[in-house]
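Take just one protein record:
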Amino acid sequence: MSDDTQDSFRNVNKKPGLQIWTINKMQMVPVQAQCFGNFFEGDCYIVMCVSTTPNTEKGTRQSADIHYWIGKHSSQDEQGSAAIYVTQLDEYLGGTPVQHREVQGNESPRFRSYFKNGLIYKKGGVASGFQHVDTNVYNILRLLHVKGRKCVTATEVEVSWNSFNKGDIFLLDMGKAIVQWNGPQSNRREKLKAVMLAQDIRDRERGGRAKIGVVEGNNERDSPELMKVMTKVLGPKPGQLREATSDEESDLVQKNNVRLYHVFQNSGNLVVQEVATQPLTQDLLLSSDCYIVDKNGSSVMVWKGKHNISNFLNISTNHFTRVEVMTEGGESAMFKHLFKSWKDKDQTHGLGTTYSVGKIAKVDQVKFDVMELHAHPQLAAQKRMVDDASGDVKVWRIEHVELVEVNPATYGQFYGGDCYLVLYTYQRAGQQRYILYMWQGRHSTANEITACAYQAVNIDNQFNGAPVQVRVVMGKEPLHFLAIFKGKLIIFEGGTGRPSVVNPDPGARLFQVRGTSELNTKATEVIARASSLNTNDVFLLKTDHMCFLWYGKVPCVHKANQRDKRVVMEGQEPAEFWVALGGKAPYASDKRLEREEPPHSPRLFECSNQTGRFRMTEVDDFAQIDLDEEDVMMLDTWEEIFLWIGNMANQNETKEALSSSQEYLKTHPASRDPDTPIIFVKQGHEPPNFTGWFNAWDPHKWRVDPSQREVGGPTGSESDEYK
């Protein structure tokens, strides 16, 4: 990098936060913070966001995203300059940032997330003189067309009634006054977002001195003074306005047609060759090469190996709307989500810092600190534990569609032919909290599964909707479920636990034991054959005359109870052991000393049918404020799916969200496990393993009456200054 380039980036701030530059006469010119969110259609911008993410090993980790934004009326020279500066800035920052190409009107969710109050598209370019912001200037007349529910955009349009329609919201900005006109078909969420945008304009551009008024388009008679103002500026209102226009948001949570292309040069010619489709694996990426990941045309990601020196990729991807460019080691969370597994350098293995995984004699069992979980909910989220599992447990079994209490002496025994409800009660901040697990046996009937869901609703109603509901599929038990049974969880492949039913004699039974402590150990019945053994685990073989405890050569498990059992080490098995298993046979013998947990950042989706049809929209860089009380939100933490139910969400949204979350897992590009636990969380009853995924969670946010929390300013009648 030249000295001149180094000088141009000398004022770049590497601390967490947002920085924006515009391209003026082919130079990067800083944009003042008061103007963040305002974009001139004739210009190009460079937006850099530096953020920190939790890292259990090192505290926090810093990452950067660099976007270059292209206005629809910007020149080719400005676009080229922006692309060059982004490449140089990336190099200046060590090549680790992720680069994004953004086009006006088609910005990525991450880009929009930086501007919580919305984007404003302004006519003109740098010649309009936005460099100096005077908060006392009121000589303004413009009409802003506001669209969107989560990510709001406001575009300058002709100051005329001809620009209006019935479904959107319009801001008539007259400098000293801003009138918000709500289309008759707009909804509450859109109105609140528009008020926030109007307040943002007032506070940042007018120094807080402008007045705001709101007109409801379906009840204009209640705002005669405001209508006089609008008529004076716009002229008489026509008899009919245009119908609402579609927001044109994608209904798909993800594009499940993902392809990987290898990009290389052959005899001076550029070659783009498809090498794989989903599910993708990390070993397909070679450090010496370049690759393109195409998400069904919706966006393109370019990956450069750390030993690659090619510079032709900027040309090859110019025709795409959204483009991300990243180098090896600086991959974005979304990129990693497309791969079935991903391992970062110096990645934590197994269960992280909670346990050191190794041979039995070396297992370091660290006591769970429940107070630390409540004090640091992000730890609860990472460990997927709401507490230390010392609360009260009650178990029911479904029998003839009714609930039957299970004998506490048999707690922890689950049969594949049954369905169970497990109610866990614990204390948090002096209040009782509840988790209701719905365990579904692999061989249970459809009627039993339906009855299990029905009875779960009944129990939920008994506690006024307070329990967090968790759907658990046999064999996919979450960590906290294992912990509440204190290492005594046994899963029988079939049969039933009903006392009145005699299960057929299965002969020899073989159980695979996995776990590193009583908090995460379970025994699962497998086929009683030698091929079921695994050198990495412990197995319990029960026959009519003997109970064998078999240890593989490198078992990564908690020390099992050896009482009344004959201990057998791998390679020293007696003849009767093999006879009980039907003879010797090959079995898994790869030494898996540590189980790698792929690091995947959480993703939040809004599930809503307020537009008339159900859709799921991703919320990037999410926070608690993004949880919409009128909707259902889906939080994907990879190992679990949370469905957060807002107090004002309707039943159709809840039903659609469940089926869509299941479809989301089935169609995920990384071939996710369709039986991933789905956890229902109701607004106001969030457990710490949910709140921990949000920064600065406010537990008192929803304890105030909703009518007292409306966004400031008038929302349905005239404000005092117009009366």
User: Anything to note?
Assistant: The two ends are 62 Å apart (CA to CA). The longest strand covers residues 44-55. The chain has 14 helices and 36 strands. Residues 22 and 45 are 4 Å apart (CA to CA).
